[in-house]
Amino acid sequence: MSRVELSPHERAQVEVARETLAAIVGARLTDASAAAYMVGRLEVSLRSLLEILDADQEPARRCPAAHPEDPAPCGGPVVVTIIDTQNAGADGCELHAIRMLASITSARPVAKPDAPAGVALRIFRAAQHTRPFPWREGRS
Ligand SMILES: [Zn+2]
Fold first, then answer.
1. Residue 73 counted as domain residue
2. Is the pLDDT of residue 131 over 90?
3. Residue 91 CA, ligand 1 centroid: distance in Å
4. How many domains does the chain have?
5. How far apart are CA 3 and CA 98, in angstroms?
6. Is 62 contained in some domain?
7. Residue 123 has what pLDDT?
8. What residues pack around ion ligand 1 (CB closer than 5 A)?
9. What's the CA gap between 106 and 32, in Å, rounded?
10. For residue 64, which of 47, 77, 51 has the smallest C-alpha distance?
11. CA–centroid distance, residue 50 to ligand 1 (Å)
12. Residue-number span of the structural domain to which 48 is assigned
């Protein structure tokens, strides 16, 4: 089981959940409107906690070069920055860097300082043999 790394906002949501639980424990739920209020608080708290858990599973944590429509998980650590003609850059793992290069024109891979030797050239060559937006193949 992986531990979740929490942002300050997420830690605040967890704190709200703890306060909600403490309030429930001390609450007298014989009053219908008080019970409804507590159920509402519980629902909001549970939702925000589940969002934190879902964010940990989802492709939101993929490298910046991953296209939103591409369902593939990263093929390893970030090894290059893809620089486009506007000099805008996106860091990418090998798989997503290849796919991004294949899908946009006149971009180039620049190896990260700690990347394995030759990785940028390998990505550049692989992109030349990769169709643009390859994840769309096989769809109607
Ligand atoms: Zn990736």
1. no
2. yes
3. 8
4. 2
5. 30
6. no
7. 97
8. 62-63, 66, 74, 93, 96
9. 65
10. 77
11. 24
12. 8-57
pLDDT digits 0-9 by tens, 30-57:
888 888 888 888 888 888 888 887 766 6
Is pLDDT above 50 for 1? no
Q: Looking at the structure, tell me whether residues 82 and 121 fall in a common domain.
A: yes
* CA separation for the pair 69, 82 (Å, rounded): 18
CA of 123 to the centre of ligand 1 (A): 13
pLDDT of residue 56: 61
Convert 123-140 to b/e letters by CB count within 10 Å (16 or more is b).
bbebbeebeeeeeeeeee
Structural tokens at position 124: 């550049």
